Structures are given as C-alpha cells and as structure tokens.
C-alpha cells in the first residue's frame, strides 16, 4: 500500500503552487518597510554645516521664505489639462481650459511657473498623497508597525507642520482623514467613495475655502478637489463634463489668487494623470504625467530660466515645501529640491547639501532595517556622497577664508550642485527600482506556472478511479528533474553566468518539474485507453458552471466586495441543482411505468422516494437556512458605507447591558457545549465511544475540560475591570493560564491522535458454536496479502455475530457464549479520528475569536455536516452496487466544500482587507505581548483562516462519509443485486469504511484524487484572483479590492494546502494503525 | 408526434406571450403613473393576473389535460378549490425559497411576495393548468423520461426558463452601476419574465426540431 507517496505528491503540487505565488508576488506586490524615525529641528542631519544661518530666529534647518501656504490638489490634473496652447484653434474638451495658469506664467514669469509633475507608480490617490507628504515612494504594502489602519506611520509634511506649530486646515477628499487621523487644526471632509458623484466634494470645498482664507485661523490650507478625477472615471477626459469641471477649477483658481496675500505660497498640483479612458493606477506615460503650478505674489524664481521647464518628480515637492516653509524635511524623503526655487548659488548649494545629508541618513537607517536595497549600489552612493561632501566643506572653508576669487568658487559650487543632483537622482532611482516597478514578465510567467499547476491537478483528479500510473513516474521523475534543474541553476548562479533572483529560479525549477510530470503522465496514460464515464467529468457537470461564475465574479470589484453573499448563493444553487438533477435522472423516483392509460395519471412512487426525497429536501432547507443565518455574523469593509457590522463581532467585555451580556455568554457556552455533546453522541452512535484507547478517554474527559476552560476564560475576559484590586493580579494570571492550558491540552490531544488513532472497542467472548471459519489465505501469517484477504471476512463475521445476538435477544444471552471478537466502531474508525480532530481544531480556533462568534462556528460545523450528508445520500443513490464510484469524490462535492469554506471565512467575521484582521487574537494567552513575531503571526493566521483550516483538514471526510452512510437498504434496492446464494448475506451487512480496506489501492488513489481536486478548485480561484490583479492593475480599485483579495486568497491557499496534506496524512496514519490492529488481531486470535 | 396538438400549443403559447406584453401596454391606459420600474409591485400584480387569466382561458379552450373530460360539477369545484390552495402554498414556498436564496427578510416584503406570486403564476399555474392539482404527476413530469405529451415538454421548458431567468436576474444586483433596474426584485422578475417568454416562444420550436427523438409511450 502506498501511503507516503500520496502525501508527498500533494505536498509537491502545493510547493509548485507556492513557487508560482512567490513569483507573482515578486512581480506584482511592491513592498517596502516603513521607518518610524522623525526629523526634528533640533537634530539637523549634520550639525557641523551652515553655521551662517543660525543667527536667524526660529530657524529650522534652512531659512524659510513663506509663513503661509495654500496647497490645492486637483485630483488627476494631467499636464495636458493645465497647459495652454494659444495656437490651438480647435481644442479638445480638456485642452486650453485653465487659462489663468497660462496668463500668470506669461505675465509674471518670476512669480508663476507650470511644471510637468511626474508621479511615481502606483498612481492611485492614496499612494500619491502618501508620496506627496512623506517624500517617499509608497508601494502597495508599506510594512509598518500597524496594519490595522491606513494612517501614515512615516514622518511626513503634515506631521512636521503640526509639530512646528502651524495650523493646518484641510478640506476635501476624506482619504486624508484615514491617512492623517486627528492631525488637522480644522477639517472639512467629504466622501470620496462614490466615483459617479462629480460635485459633492468640490462644492463642499468651495463653500469653505474662501471664508477660511479670509479668516485668520490658519497657516496652511490644503484643498483636495476630486471632481476632475471622478469626471475622468465616469465620462473619460474628452467629454463636455470634463470641460465644465476644468472651467470650474479655472474660476476657483482665479478667485483664489485674489484672496492671496504677499506672504502666501500657492501650490496647485495633480496627484496623477489619467489614461484616455480616464483610468489610473499603472505606470504609463499618461497616468504619470500630472501638473504642478507654483505661484506667489512675491518673486519665487530667478531670472535666467528656460521657457519649458523640465519635469519635476513628485517627491521633489516635499523638500522644496519644507525649505520654503521652514520645517525639517521628513525623515524618509527621497526627493530633491526644485532647483529653480533657490536662485543664489550659495543657498542652492547649501540646500542641496542638507537635502543630500538627509537622504543619506535615511538610506543608512533603511539599509539597517531592511535588506531589499542592493548593497553594491548603496556602497557606490555612499562613496559618491562622502566625496561630494568632503569637497563641499573644502569649498565652503575656502569661501569663508575668501582665499580664492568668487567666480572660481561659484563655478566649483555649480559643479558640486551638479554632483549632488546626480547623487539624489541615483538614490531615488535605486529605491524606485526595488520598490515601484511591476514586472510583467514575471507576472505572466507566474500565471502560466499557476495554470499548469491547475492543469496538473485537473489531470490527476480526472484520471478516474483506476489511476494506475506508478508513483515513480508521477512523483519520482518530476522531483528528480526539478532537483537537477535546481542544481544547474544553482551552479550557474554560483559561477554568475546568469543573474536571477531566487523567486525566478524557483519558478523555472517548478516549470521543469511540471513539464516532466506532464510528459510522463501523457506517456503513461496514452498506453491504456480507459473508458470514462462522462458524468464524472468536470466539464459536463453543474459544478463547472458554478466554478465558472465563481471565477468570473473575482474579476469584478463589486462581486469581490459582495463575496460574502455570492459564495452562499452559488453554494446553495449548486447543491439544489445537484438534487434536482438527481430527481431528473430518476434516481429518486424509480417510477414503475404504468401500462394502462388510467394509471398514468397517478404514477406510484417508490418507497425509497418517499424516504429519500423529504430527507434530501430537509437537508437542503437546513443548509440554506444555516447559510442565511450565518450571514448575521458578517463584518463590513469601507467600500460598503451602508453596511452595519454585526454586533456579534464586539467582544463581550464591551457590552454594557448586563442582561444582554449574561444572555450572550450563556448562548455561547451552550453552543460550545452542544458541539462537544454532539461529538460524544456521534461517537456513541457509531460505537467508538466504548473503546479504551487513550484518545477516547481524551474525548470523554479532556473535551469537557476544554469546554470548561474556555467558558472560564470567557467569563474572566468579559468581566468588568472594576473588580477588587487584590483579585486583579489573580485575574491577569488566569487570563494567561487558561488559554495556555487549553493550548497544551489540545496539543496533547493531537499527539494522542497521532500515536493511537484507533477507536475500536474490542470484546472477546468464548463460543464454540459460531463459525470461526475464516478462510486462510496461503501466505505467511500477518503478511499484507493475507491481511487483504482476511480482514473483510473478519469484519463481516463480527457484524454477523452482532446481528445474531441482537436478534436472539436477551434471554439466551447467558446460554450462548459466542466466541467471536466483537469490534465496535470499526466501520467508522477513519471518520471518528477525523471528526475528533476537527472538533478539537474548531474549539481552539473559536477560542481565538470573539466569544460571541461561537454560534457561527456551530453553524459552520452543522453546515459542513449537512453537506457531507447530502453528498453521501447523492453518492449512494448514484453508485452501482459494488460501490466503486464511491472511491472518486464527484466534483460538485468538492466545489461545494470549497464554497462553504469561502463562506465560512465571511461568517466568522472576516473580510479580505487588512484593517478587518482580528489583531487581538494574537494576545489570547499572551496578554503581555510577545518576544518574537512567530507566535502572534500563527495565532492571527489561525484566526483569519479558521474556516479554511477546518474545511481543508476535513476534506477527506468527503471520501469517508458516503461509506459511513452506506445502508443495506439502499444496496438492496439496486436492480443488479447479485442473486447468488452465498453473496446475498454478505451484501446485506454494511461494510462501511471497511470497504476502503478491501481496496487499499483504490483508497489511496481516491485520497490522492480528492486532494488533487480540492487543490484544483482552490487553485482555479487563486488563478482568477491572480489574473484579476494582473489584468486590472490599472483599475481604480486594484489596491483596495483586488490586491488585498489576491493576498488573502494566496495566504488562504497556502494554509488550505498545508492542512489538506495534514488531514490526508492523518487519514493515512489511521490506516496504518488499523492495519497494525488487524495484524495483532490475526496473530493473537486463535482460529 | 401529434402535429395538430403542437399547433394548438403554439397558439396557446402565443397568447401566453401576449399576456406578458399586454401587462405592459394596457395598465398605462387606465393608471396615470404606471411604469415598469417605478411601480414595480403594481406591474407584478398585473402581470401575474394576466398570465393566470390567459392560462385559465387556455385551460377552458384547449383542454390539454384529458382528465377534465366528463367530470361532474362537484369534482370540478373540488379541483378548483384544491388548485387555489396549491397556488397559495406555492406562493409561500417560493417566498421561502427566495428568502433562502438571499432576499431580505424584513425589508421589501411585499415586493418579495409579489415576486413569488409571479413565479407561481409562471410555474405553478401552468402546472395546474396542464396537469391538474396532482402532485405526483408534477413530480413525474420533472424527470428525464417523465414527459408524456407535448404539453409536458412545454411545461418543462417554461419552468426551466422562468427559474433560470430569475436565477440569472440576481447576478446584476451586486454591481455598482446604480441603475434603477438593479433594485431587488426588479432584475429577478424581469429575468423570470424573459425566461418565461423565451420558454413559451422556443418551446414549440424545440419540440418541433426534436420531434423525431420524442416518442411518447402513452396517448
Ligand atoms: Zn487621484
Ligand atoms: Zn481616480
């Protein structure tokens, strides 16, 4: 029997999936680490330099030029929108609309200037606001200390302004509220979410802008207009609405300029551009090219300026504004100052010097915190910086000694400025290289590897119940090839022939092993053309339709947002259609077709219909009811403003009303108790509870103990804090001790399960009468072959004896001392182990959640059991008498199982966005925080993916359950029941899971195919998430919806595949133990 | 294959489609602010009533169900009352099913109920009209070999059309297009109506094309 290769094969396929996920992440997910350091006036980057300015009062790094500033951000203001071409007689809708800018730049070239403003990708509003305030290059994942909110952790302009005593007034887009909570002196936020709404934000700003500016209560006004961007999204740039909107902006700017005084700087900037369809988010020329307009009533610029200024990188605004307003440059800034604003050579040089010092300081701290910047380039930059600084200090000292002519020194300074500029540009380019570039080649490669993985799973899953390809070909050769490929690439890398990073090497290696697998698989399977039954193919089944819709839904942001409702809808549709098809196929009715016309009006229904149909309908109704009911435990995401998060998500301790508190506490404890009680009842029903094996003792005693522990823990954690101070320490201790004891108990349970998972109660009695003739197989006693032959006989005999005894009743129990071995619970030995393990897992996982989510876990388990029952009824109704079809789990069951898992993610109060993660689960049992990051990561992952864990670990039940529910009545109904005398009796007794032992090869192949099908279903969903993220990377919602969804799906897939392998490994471990048990039985039992 | 029966059925189906069309055309003549989207519940009422009325007329004229021949007045009354009860129960069952598929429980109850009445008039009333209040016959018709005449086939097709239409009608609801027809239950009832109409139109064609394959054991 091949047990190990099954698990190894699944693990290998999972590894292939992981490598493609990794490759995709390396190409798509732009990642960087946030530093928490803050700049401050007291700590300039270098204290030695520019003593010349320090006499000035309120001096901070650099002498400031303006007291006040008005910063107008017009969302998606392209450079094309802002520039004005008088020669253009036939302007498009968006051209030549902002004539005020043109007029000012023409009439006052020293006061006003329009620049192309180069945004860094990703060109989404939130990332751009972050970039324009921190001066850094924000990516999708800025790994900071806090995932739970979008608030900017890094040092930024707003922070510096507020910290240096400026009153910052904000009006406009409410994204700023999330980024800078509680920072503004005064703020007027307007909702930005509705893209269709062109005017709310702009009109709101215009109501407040001029009154605020005329008042005194401000130093900095920031106004963020959204109309132009929304106009682009709704109509596209070349549309009359855009013209209207730009005209409105033009009027706004002209009256704004009238309200300006001499001491105020005006900055008008677009955060990004837009494509011809009005979208943005990517890195194309049109999206990146925004506009920047600077104006003040005092001269800003020097004389000798070219007509068409060069493009200004967006981050360059940050140090320039900082210097102009006299605040320190934010710590993580990578921008360089805008050269034109500093016209004397001396000030320019010193500004550049401070700027470079600050960038150098940041690069140094960053390279200490993270290793993703290339070391060689860092060193090169460091060298460049120190040489320039040395020279600068030399020149400055010569200047102060006035030993050389001024013109010579000035030319030297100009050279230095040029080198500083080079340094700053190179530093920014290096960071951009590693933080802000998509790699389309990698993304496409990852997609193709992922699709090959799915294909591979599909082939294995579809291969039918008689997959006979040897594991040498399935597993051995691909692994050999992948190892050799790894070796080759490793050597090439070592000898530096090729320059590849690890992700791409792993991608190539997995590609090699996939191709090898496909080659051998084709070669092997083409030899024998097995007939297939069409109904088992995925393509011809209902589940393919549901899977298709499911995958399509992942490409629409509204459907991803509504996934919590979409998944149960598809789930119940799938199961309803399955049952309807069962009826359509006549499996339920088995009509006795009447021959007479009068009878045809009242066809008789077979008895199995009367029994099975209400049962199936009842199960279906129960399932849909559970699915609907569990919807009350949902949480919300910010894209659905009307959604009210479920009250069950708040922990008990924050419930004020004591009566509600007590009631919900009781409800939670009761549902917890019911779970444990049902487990006991189930085991009792199948006769597994009588066993004296340690795991049954564990079920009998430790489960109630765990329940008690969890209830006590809840009681303690939800109790009010104003209890006696003397008890306070005790309570704190208990809050730590209870969960840890439960963790330990659970660990003990899992250990027991691995050591001795057989829960069979054996009773030996002595009897001479019963026929002990177990035909012996001619082989060495205890050998595999004999086991195969004898075990079913033993099992049948046991069953027969039991039946006889039951029939004979109580009176002659004394007289007949039957001598067979009676084994209780042998028919459910596999499922018992799985069910116990799953319940244990569920208890641990629900302890990590808020107490009041316990009923949702209960509903989830009930739902899973209902799916199992529906599946086993349907399978048993479809299967032929020999039950061979039962060994391959149909697609619909696996799809339903996966959909239920997805639904469970939402009904346990999760959403695929970072702020919705339940962070406090990291502190269950660890009240005082952690020393390392591993334990909290595990706890949070277990909390987030609990339904993935339960459903993937329990997926092997899909194979086991139909055997468990096998009833003799159904078998007897089959028309082709064998009529031979000897067989009839054997067919009568249900073999249950012992049928699996009859066909060990089919059993292991069945498990393998089940695993492959499960991985296929999950993998296809992952693939569509990946494709959605890749194709829609310019979509408005990519960073808010698709990218987080992809991340959660990828992590969920990883967790699922790990627990799938573990679950199947556990089943095979039980199989091993059962083999051993039988071996002992045969060796010790006299026959 | 009974050609005349098929022809009779096509005419009947034509009237069925006409009923749906008329439910859109006639009410504006009498009601002032009647519109499909604005006063949707009203339209649902009208449409169900029209469909049921046409079905009753067809039942009386075409007599697809031979069991209605030569029955006493008492049994007719009995059958009629039974049919009414069946229809009402089916409305409740559809309401429950629609709720279980995700319709709101407390809000827009009248809309949901009228939607289930519409479904009942598309499905149950046709069942009653073709098969009579005979639940076993209903069960029989909806299986692979259960159809015994062209009417059974047409019933299968229109039922499938209505159910699939209603099911697909649920798909646009989550989208953020903010169109008036995305409101529950408009898209679903429109989908069901379209599926029903399509079933009525294409049913006879489908039966005609497959007339070689369809052999009926009885009649
Ligand atoms: Zn924007
Ligand atoms: Zn936008």
UniProtKB/TrEMBL annotation, chain A:
Pfam family, one: Phosphodiest
Sequence intervals crossing the membrane: 7-31, 441-461, 473-491, 503-521, 537-560, 663-683, 695-716, 736-755, 823-847, 853-871, 883-900, 934-964, 1005-1031, 1051-1070
InterPro entries linked: Alkaline_phosphatase_core_sf (IPR017850), Phosphodiest/P_Trfase (IPR002591), PIG-O_N (IPR037675), PIGO/GPI13 (IPR039524)
GO BP: GPI anchor biosynthetic process
Pathways involved: Glycolipid biosynthesis; glycosylphosphatidylinositol-anchor biosynthesis
GO cellular component terms, semicolon-separated: endoplasmic reticulum membrane
Family the UniProt entry places it in: Belongs to the PIGG/PIGN/PIGO family. PIGO subfamily.
Protein name as annotated: GPI ethanolamine phosphate transferase 3, catalytic subunit
Organism: Pelobates cultripes (Western spadefoot toad)
From TrEMBL, chain B:
Chief place where the protein resides: endoplasmic reticulum
One GO cellular component, as annotated: endoplasmic reticulum membrane
Membrane topology: Multi-pass membrane protein
An annotated GO BP: GPI anchor biosynthetic process
Pathway(s) of this molecule: Glycolipid biosynthesis; glycosylphosphatidylinositol-anchor biosynthesis
Protein name: Phosphatidylinositol-glycan biosynthesis class F
Keyword Endoplasmic reticulum: yes
Segments forming a coiled coil: none
């Amino acid at each position: 029997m091949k047990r190990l290769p099954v698990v190894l094969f699944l693990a290998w396929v999972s590894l292939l999936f992981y490598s493609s996920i990794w490759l995709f992440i390396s190409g798509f997910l732009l990642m960087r680490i946030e530093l928490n350091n803050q700049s401050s006036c007291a700590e300039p980057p270098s204290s030695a330099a520019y003593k010349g300015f320090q006499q000035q009062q309120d001096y901070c790094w650099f002498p400031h030029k303006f007291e006040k500033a008005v910063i107008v951000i017009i969302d998606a203001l392209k450079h094309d929108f802002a520039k004005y071409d008088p020669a253009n007689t036939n302007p498009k809708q968006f051209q030549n609309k902002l004539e005020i800018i043109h007029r000012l730049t023409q009439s006052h070239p020293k006061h006003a200037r329009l620049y192309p403003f180069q945004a860094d990708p990703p060109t989404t509003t939130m990332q751009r606001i972050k970039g324009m305030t921190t001066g850094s290059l924000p990516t999708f994942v800025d790994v900071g200390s806090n995932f739970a909110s979008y608030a900017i952790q890094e040092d930024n302009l707003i922070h510096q302004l507020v910290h240096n005593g400026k009153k910052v007034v904000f009006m406009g887009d409410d994204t700023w509220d999330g980024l800078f909570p509680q920072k503004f002196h005064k703020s007027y936020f307007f909702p930005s979410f509705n893209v269709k709404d062109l005017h709310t934000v702009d009109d709101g700003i215009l109501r407040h802008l001029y009154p605020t500016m005329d008042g005194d209560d401000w130093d900095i006004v920031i106004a963020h207009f959204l109309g132009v961007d929304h106009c682009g999204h709704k109509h596209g740039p070349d549309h009359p609405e855009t013209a209207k909107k730009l005209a409105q902006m033009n009027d706004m700017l002209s009256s704004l300029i009238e309200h300006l005084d001499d001491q105020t700087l005006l900055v008008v900037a677009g955060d990004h551009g837009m494509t011809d369809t009005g979208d943005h988010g990517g890195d194309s020329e049109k999206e990146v090219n925004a506009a920047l307009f600077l104006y003040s009533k005092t001269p800003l610029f020097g004389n000798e300026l070219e007509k068409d200024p060069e493009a200004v990188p967006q981050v360059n605004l940050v140090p320039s504004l900082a210097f102009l307003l006299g605040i320190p440059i934010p710590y993580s800034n990578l921008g360089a100052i805008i050269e034109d604003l500093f016209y004397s050579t001396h000030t320019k040089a010193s500004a550049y010097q401070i700027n470079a010092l600050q960038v150098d300081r940041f690069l140094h701290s960053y390279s200490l915190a993270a290793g993703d910047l290339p070391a060689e380039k860092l060193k090169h930059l460091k060298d460049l910086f120190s040489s320039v600084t040395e020279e600068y200090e030399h020149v400055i000292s010569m200047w102060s000694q006035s030993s050389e002519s001024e013109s010579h020194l000035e030319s030297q300074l100009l050279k230095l400025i040029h080198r500083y500029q080079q340094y700053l540009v190179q530093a920014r380019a290096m960071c951009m290289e590693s933080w802000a570039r998509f790699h389309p080649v990698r993304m496409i490669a990852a997609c193709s590897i992922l699709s090959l993985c799915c294909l591979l799973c599909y082939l294995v899953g579809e291969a039918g119940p008689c997959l006979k390809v040897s594991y040498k070909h399935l597993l051995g050769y691909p692994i050999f090839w992948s190892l050799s490929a790894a070796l080759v690439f490793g050597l090439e890398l070592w000898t530096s022939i090729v320059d590849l990073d690890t992700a791409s090497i792993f991608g190539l290696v997995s590609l090699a092993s996939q191709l090898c697998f496909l080659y051998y698989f084709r070669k092997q399977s083409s030899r024998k053309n097995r007939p297939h039954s069409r109904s088992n193919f995925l393509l011809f089944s209902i589940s393919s339709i549901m899977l298709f819709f499911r995958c399509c839904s992942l490409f629409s942001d509204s459907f991803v947002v509504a996934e919590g409702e979409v998944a149960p809808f598809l789930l119940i549709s799938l199961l309803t259609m399955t049952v309807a098809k069962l009826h359509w196929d006549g499996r339920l009715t088995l009509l006795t077709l009447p021959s007479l016309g009068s009878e045809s009006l009242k066809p008789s229904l077979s008895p199995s219909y009367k029994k099975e149909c209400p049962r199936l309908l009842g199960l279906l109704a129960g399932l849909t009811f559970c699915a609907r009911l569990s919807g009350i435990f949902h949480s919300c995401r910010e894209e659905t403003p009307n959604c009210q998060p479920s009250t069950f998500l708040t922990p008990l301790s924050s419930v004020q009303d004591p009566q509600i508190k007590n009631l919900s506490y009781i409800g939670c404890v009761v549902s917890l108790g019911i779970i444990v009680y049902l487990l006991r009842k189930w085991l009792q029903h199948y006769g597994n509870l009588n066993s004296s094996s340690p795991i049954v003792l564990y079920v009998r005693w430790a489960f109630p103990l765990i329940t008690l522990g969890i209830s006590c823990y809840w009681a303690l954690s939800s109790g009010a804090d104003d209890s006696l101070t003397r008890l306070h320490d005790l309570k704190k201790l208990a809050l730590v001790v209870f969960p840890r004891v439960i963790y330990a108990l659970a660990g003990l349970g899992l250990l027991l399960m691995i050591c001795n998972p057989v829960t069979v109660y054996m009773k030996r009695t002595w009897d001479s009468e019963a026929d002990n003739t177990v035909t012996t197989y001619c082989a060495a006693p205890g050998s595999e072959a004999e086991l195969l032959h004898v075990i079913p006989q033993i099992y049948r005999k046991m069953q027969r004896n039991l039946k006889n005894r039951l029939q004979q009743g109580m009176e002659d129990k004394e007289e007949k001392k039957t001598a067979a071995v009676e084994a209780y619970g042998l028919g459910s030995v596999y499922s018992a182990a799985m069910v116990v393990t799953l319940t244990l897992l569920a208890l641990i996982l629900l302890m990590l959640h808020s107490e009041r989510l316990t009923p949702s876990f209960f509903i989830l388990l009930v739902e899973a059991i209902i799916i199992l029952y529906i599946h086993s009824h349907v399978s048993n109704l479809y299967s032929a008498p020999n039950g061979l079809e039962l060994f391959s789990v149909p697609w619909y069951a696996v799809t339903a199982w996966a959909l239920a898992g997805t639904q469970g993610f939402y009904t346990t109060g999760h959403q695929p966005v970072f702020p919705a993660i339940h962070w406090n689960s990291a502190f269950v049992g660890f009240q005082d925080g952690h020393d390392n990051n591993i334990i909290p990561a595990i706890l949070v992952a277990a909390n987030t993916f609990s339904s993935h864990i339960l459903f993937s670990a329990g997926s092997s039940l899909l194979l086991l359950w139909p055997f468990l529910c096998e009833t003799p009545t159904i078998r007897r109904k089959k028309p082709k029941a064998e009529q031979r005398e000897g067989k009839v009796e054997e067919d009568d007794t249900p073999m249950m899971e012992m049928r699996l032992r009859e066909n060990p090869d089919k059993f292991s192949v069945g498990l393998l195919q089940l695993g492959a099908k499960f991985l296929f279903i999950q993998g296809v969903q992952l693939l569509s998430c990946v494709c959605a993220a890749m194709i829609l990377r310019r979509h408005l919602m990519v960073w808010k919806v698709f990218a987080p969804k992809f991340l959660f799906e990828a992590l969920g897939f990883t967790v699922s595949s790990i627990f799938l392998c573990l679950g199947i490994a556990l089943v095979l471990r039980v199989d091993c133990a059962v083999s051993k048990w039988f071996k002992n039985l045969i060796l010790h039992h006299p026959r | 294959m009974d050609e005349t029966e098929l022809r009779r059925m096509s005419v009947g189906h034509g009237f069925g489609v006409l009923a749906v069309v008329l439910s859109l055309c006639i009410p504006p003549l009498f009601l002032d602010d009647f519109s499909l989207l604005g006063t949707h519940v009203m339209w649902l009422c009208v449409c169900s009533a029209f469909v049921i009325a046409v079905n009753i007329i067809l039942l009386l004229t075409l007599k697809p169900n031979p069991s209605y021949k030569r029955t006493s007045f008492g049994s007719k009354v009995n059958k009629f009352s039974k049919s009414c009860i069946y229809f009402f129960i089916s409305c409740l069952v559809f309401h429950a099913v629609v709720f279980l598929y995700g319709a709101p429980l407390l809000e827009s109850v009248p809309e949901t109920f009228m939607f289930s009445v519409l479904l009942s008039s598309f499905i149950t009333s046709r069942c009653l009209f073709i098969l009579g209040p005979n639940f076993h016959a209903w069960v029989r018709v909806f299986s692979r070999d259960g159809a015994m005449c062209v009417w059974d086939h047409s019933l299968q097709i229109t039922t499938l059309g209505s159910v699939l239409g209603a099911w697909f009608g649920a798909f646009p609801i989550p989208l953020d297009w903010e169109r008036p027809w995305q409101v529950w239950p408009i898209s679903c009832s429109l989908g069901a109506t379209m599926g029903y109409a399509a079933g009525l139109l294409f049913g006879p064609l489908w039966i005609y094309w497959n007339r070689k394959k369809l052999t009926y054991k009885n009649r």
